[in-house]
Amino acid sequence: MENIKLSFPEQAGVPSQALSDFLSRLEARRIPLHGFVLMRDEKIAAEGYCPPFSENSLHRMYSASKSFVSAAIGILISQGKLRLTDRPADLLPDKAEGCTDPNILGATIRDLLRMAGPHAFSPYQEEGVTDWVSSFFHPKKPTRMPGQMFIYDTSNTVTLTAIVERITGKCLLDFLRDCGLAEAGFSPNAYCIQTPCGVSWAGSGILCTTRDLALFGSICMNGGRWHGKAIMDPDYLAEATSRQISSLVNSDHPFFQYGYGYQFWQFRYGFACYGMGAQLALCVPEKGVVLAITADTQALPSGIDAVLDAACSLFSEIADSPLDRAPEAEKAFLEKAASLRIPLPVGDTEIPDSFTFFGKTFRFQENPMGLKWMRVQKQDNAVVWEYENASGAHSLTLGLGDYVKQLFPELYDGKRISSKDTQYRCMGTACFPLPNELDMLLYIVDDYLGSLKASFYFEDNHVCVLMKKTAEWFLEEYDGLAFGIAD
Q1: Residues 442 and 427 sit within 8 Å (Cβ to Cβ)
Q2: In angstroms, how far is CA 486 from the centroid of its own chain?
Q3: For 395-448, what is each residue's pLDDT tens digit?
Q4: Which residues lie closer than 8 Å to 140 by C-beta, 6 or more apart?
Q5: Is the N-terminal amide bond of 52 cis, ω within 30° of 0?
Q6: pTM for this one?
Q7: For residues 164 and 178, is the Cβ–Cβ distance under 8 A?
Q8: How far apart are the C-alpha atoms of 23 and 282, rounded to whole Å?
Q9: What 3-state class would DSSP assign to 254?
């Protein structure tokens, strides 16, 4: 997409100062931004990335993935291979075999698209479930009448994805690429994590670049066209990106209480693809603008508010026509965008003279994390946390004043859920908020995103360790409180 990048933001009516202000607002709220791309009229007006992320980095989109499923459904409808009134139970008869529940049997494609399916929960999350698609038709909890009320349930999207892949014989992203996304410039190496039964987990698991997300949003906003070429059906998209059901009661954020379409959220200025951790494609048809954002705000309860507030402030500054070039403001923005960094924890990065606990081994009392012992070692511009838990002896290197990239020592899910076969890429840092306290901040920056925070409080021959993880389905053994005594 380099060939569609504008020379300066004002060409698109976007003040460079407004872009600097947007980044400053995120910085002031300590948002772990990973990247952003602002597009207008199919051209990139501005972008920026925080290391280790770049314009080529594949990034987990979490529930922003759901909108891609909607697009695929729309293409199949335009090809005459599917109807909104079709019933998943008829399209996946092997998965539905034995189902007698009228609520499940009567649910339609449109019901699932609007998050008005038969479940008030996600059946695939029930203990012991391995076939996520079959679980939709054979839940262990009562169902509800479909089509009436919005209740956010990713099993709807799992089932829709299975239908797409059953009809096409292709994985979801390959189908979309073949239908025009590839020609538009969508990354050829983008992929989707699979469910345990081998279906694309497109309710949460697409990994593509921030540019790809902006490109997808732009196509959807422009009636399914990219540079004049039709990729998706405009009539379907007009429905999909408009309010089809109320989200007032069951949306946990006021920004998204404007309704829900077909796997697209409505918001004050238009529609959005929205995923956990602030994965966003905010589409503003009135201005012809798409703002794609990738980040990890999972550990910040108010983080999504800060991101959306900053985005709306930026939208309000965008003019209706091109602006004169503003060289000084442009230079300041480019410098700011080039210097983006994920925030560091607050504290001293110089080792206090009074910190005398390096090399000491502390043995723990019984604790929920299963920690057996730990020690802290000093290294050039870093500290090393050595420890042993139920999976063995490990170490993590934590930069002082910077992040150190490494592999997290535990084995977790790979590209298919429930295959504990990979170490996640991570980056860790530390600081001394007090002379006898060491704080750790670690981000997982892989196919799965998450964070781990820890405080180590040392006094005499004791250490108190408090750890908190914010991650979906992993880092479970790094959450809790432990007390240790030095040998």
Answers
A1: yes
A2: 41
A3: 999 999 999 999 999 999 999 998 888 999 999 999 999 999 999 999 999 999
A4: 123, 126
A5: yes
A6: 0.96
A7: no
A8: 16
A9: helix
